[in-house]
Fold this sequence. Notes:
Strand order of the largest sheet: 3-4-11
Radius of gyration: 41 Å
Shape: extended
Helix content: 25-40%
Amino acid sequence: MRAETFTSVLVTKKRTYINKRPPSLIVTGSARKGIAAKDWTSEVVFTNDYNSPRIEIPAVIVRTMRLVNGEHLNGRDLAVYWFLFATARQQGIHRERHSVTYSAVAKYLGIRDLKRIRDVLDRLNVTDVRYDCNQDGTRRQSGRLIDIAEFDPNERFCGKTEIFFSLPAVLRRAVQRSKDYAMVDINALSRLKSRYAVTLYIRLCYLSGMYHLARPIWNLSVANMAQIISYSMKAYRKSHMLSFVRSAIAEISGLSKLHRRFEFDAVEPNEFSDEYQIIVGSSAKRVAEATPAELTDDEYEVVYARNVLPLEAHQYPSVMRLRQAATIVKNKNLTRIVSTRIVSHEWRYDVWGATHYGAPVAGMEAEDFLRELRYGAIEKVFDWWVDRLEFLPNGLRIRSTEIVPDFVAAEPAAKAPVVREPIEERVIEPEVVPEDDTRVGEELGVYEYGEPDGPPTLVEAEDIDDSEIPD
């Protein structure tokens, strides 16, 4: 468990000063559980897509652990190592010997071939490591990465076969004495293929867990990057190392939101700078993973009431989620003024404003917000909303203007109706067009008048008797 957070922040124009916790509030690793999971056996599996359990790795191990001869390792090998470390943390880091079944490792990796797991253990067993822990008057500590007992050939080899191992004493002492640590999503490690990606991801998890005022921009040279990721210097080529780091960053960026809780941006060395520049955002703790805040009977009646700013049935988060959200908001804003009742009121206020007045919620348009509540999952929208719920020390809320989140599907752009031009009749004109006779006046010459040509002049017939007309 964590002790009560002590905060004393002094922000000046030049830098930010943050005092450490007093000795009375420090909780060492020996008093902490070291894992964040409700059911370790069922959650630490490759097929888990509903939550992401985390493990605690001491900060001194994250910063100073270097593989001496790890050229033969890959990302899956290191993922198994940290799985064994987490198992030892669960069983008791003070113990010298721990065990786990082949079936548990296979479920964690998402494979069925147990012989492949034995090959992984063989590679881990011949790997050396170096720490910089300053224990027993010695600054640098070196030894084997892990000590795995030999397999008994007389024992039946199946999924229930146990793997017995022990961690170095320097590592166990570092865990017990640790005051600072990194929370790492363990199921993310089994999805990374490169050992450089695993090491870099753990370091980014450590940076994302820092207080936002103290989190620096990570500037490091190419040589320092090679040292941090334990890159072999036997046949060092800068172009090769840059390519490996680029692939590792791409793998980490490809993780889903479930396994990567933070946003980060990495700038590679270029013609203007010979350093890496990595900016890491804060790691958001999901509401379902927080400890519920205390709630009195009177506050419960107010939170559960449906007659104040009434919402629709699908717009109400559960009382348990509101209590857990209150814990997150308290720890994030470092104020005791915020309670479950205030979180419930702010949620109703935002949903009511979006429903009746079209007011945006934390930068999201009201139409998108209400659509996600109706057709999406309220857990997802509520997590996003809680992460942006901020208060001043005096209890006043800070209105956020964040951009639209990734889970909001963009509406298809409305297409303008197509207006077709009328089809004109095609007139086929002759090749030679006769010119019109436009002559006037004297251009026509002299007109001559006379009798027109016609039939001959009619002659009157003589009178003849009818009897004289021949038959």
